[in-house]
Amino acid sequence: MSSHRFAVGQNVWLTTRFPPTHSGSYEVVRLMPSDDGTIAYRIKNDAERFLRVAQEYELSDYGSPPDQ
Questions:
Q1: How many domains does the chain have?
Q2: Residue 54's closest CA among 1, 21, 23?
Q3: d(CA 66, CA 25)
């Protein structure tokens, strides 16, 4: 079983969405259970009124700028 790379409360970049999402960081608000080995998170940006679900490969550490 794989473990989550990011923790609740951690800020991350959302890097692989099209069309582009809101610029800025997202906060991890929940670790999603993994039934099939896919690691996912619920994330939130203050400029949006909703939560997103993102796969781990779509996120990167907030400390390093996202790939453009």
A1: 1
A2: 21
A3: 10
Predicted confidence (pLDDT) per residue in 38-63, tens digit: 899 999 998 889 999 999 999 999 87
Residue type, 11: N
| Domain assignment of residue 35, yes or no | yes
Q: Is residue 6 part of a domain?
A: no
Domain hosting residue 16, numbered range = 11-61
Query: pTM of the entire structure?
Result: 0.81
Contact 41, 54 (CB under 8 A): yes
Output b/e per residue, 20-55; b: 16+ Cβ within 10 A.
Answer: ebeeeebbbeeeeeeeeeebbbbbebeeeeeebebe
